[in-house]
From TrEMBL:
This is Transcobalamin-2. Disulfide bonds join C39-C82. The keyword Ligase does not apply. SUPFAM superfamilies: Family 10 polysaccharide lyase. The lineage of its organism: Eukaryota, Metazoa, Chordata, Craniata, Vertebrata. One of its GO terms (cellular component) is extracellular space. Primary vitamin B12-binding and transport protein. Delivers cobalamin to cells. It is found in: Secreted.
Length: 306
């Protein structure tokens, strides 16, 4: 199954400029999102800018290590749909129409047996794209129904706690996509999500769990069993490890929550990231603040390039 370990592929590096970011942060996901954002505000961009995204979709540049980045293709498809609906970049009309079809086909092909497109967290954007589809047919209908059913089940299981993920899901629950922002209907009734209320029982004695924390890519390698109250997040495991000594980490705030940027003093370099892995080799589908390890799990922090 595609997980975030297969990140969005990136456009060619920028030419040196006065911009002094410490690392390049451009990806086709961000490129597509920017075109989409400008388009819903009816801002015209040059054909060469759109052409670069078209080229990426036509030539599978959103592939990474052989995997498809469903989030990236979905955002590109939404951007093209907006351009088509707004009659922008009309000289590219034919390529844009074909690219929408290509993006939709790629997303459909990425459906898992559970019904997700890619993984649970790429499914909301994928559904946004497929909902805007001019593609007729029972196949699309069944695929979308299966994805919706899988999403609703995961909602019940509490998979959507992250505000950014909820922001990508809410339009789908309202039968809308980001493209509808071209002319938003502010008066339409809205589906919202109610926070689940958990009443902790009085006299609850916290149960403790043990999580093995491993960092093999530093010298000397770090490996310790950390004891935390059951239900703790991975971030709480990291905090506890730091408190015990011999472990250090740093984060950067992002819209998705705290992003792990350094471990044992090792800061990520350009196009590197600290990947979160459940041993032996399963990349986590949530960040440190949202993921709650189970008793006996081994979590590895692995420095990889994207
Ligand atoms: C590109 C991308 C990456 C790139 C970011 C590098 C870069 N400079 O572009 C890389 C490959 C490094 C990456 C890493 C991870 N990612 Co990621 N990523 C994305 C993607 C496709 C686009 C994000 C983006 O550019 N947004 C637009 C910009 C404008 O917004 P931004 O807030 O500035 O974006 C920054 C943050 O989002 C941050 N970031 C990226 N991913 C994640 C994940 C988490 C949990 C956090 C806190 C921050 C973060 O990097 C972005 C660029 O600087 C999203 C897809 C989506 N549907 O949102 C997944 C997504 C957000 N990632 C996800 C995950 C799970 C991860 C990892 C935890 C995977 C792992 N097992 O290690 C790691 C983060 C680990 C850590 N160190 O904390 C999930 C989050 C699901 C959730 N429940 O919240 C998503 C939704 C993908 C998916 N469908 O599963 N990711």
């Amino acid at each position: 199954m595609w997980a975030c370990a297969s990140p969005a592929w990136r456009p060619a590096p920028r030419r040196p400029s006065t911009y002094t970011a410490s690392r390049s942060i451009t990806s086709y996901y961000q490129y597509g999102l920017s075109i989409l954002a400008l388009c819903v505000h009816q801002k015209r961009v040059h054909d060469s800018v759109v052409g670069k995204l078209l080229y990426a979709v036509e030539h599978d540049h959103h592939l990474h290590q052989g995997h498809l980045s469903v989030d990236t293709v979905a955002v590109a498809g939404l951007a093209f749909t907006c351009l088509e609906r707004s009659s922008l970049n009309s000289d590219l009309r034919h390529r844009i129409t074909l690219a929408i079809r290509t993006a939709q086909e790629k997303v459909l092909k990425a459906q898992t047996p559970e019904g997700y497109f890619g993984n649970v967290y790429s499914t909301p954007l994928a559904l946004q794209l497929l909902m805007t589809s001019p593609m007729p047919g029972a196949e699309l209908g069944t695929a979308c129904l299966n994805a919706r059913a899988a999403l609703l089940a995961s909602l019940q299981d509490g998979a959507f706690q992250n505000a950014l993920m909820i922001s990508q899901l809410l339009p789908v629950l309202n039968h809308k996509s980001y493209v509808d922002l071209i002319s938003p209907d502010c008066l339409a009734p809205r589906v919202t999500l109610e926070p689940a209320t958990v009443t902790p029982s009085l006299m609850q004695v916290p149960e403790f769990i043990h999580v093995m924390l491993k960092v093999p890519s530093v010298w000397p390698p770090y490996r310790h069993s950390i004891s935390v109250p059951a239900g703790s997040s991975l971030e709480e495991v990291l905090m506890k490890a730091q408190e015990l000594g011999g472990f250090m980490y740093g984060t950067q705030a992002s819209l998705s929550g705290p992003y792990l940027t350094s471990v044992m003093g090792k800061e990520v370099g350009e196009r590197e990231f600290w990947q979160l892995i459940r041993a032996p080799d399963t990349p986590l589908q949530q960040g440190i603040a949202d993921y709650r390890p189970k008793d006996g799990e081994t979590i590895e922090l692995r420095l990889v390039t994207w």
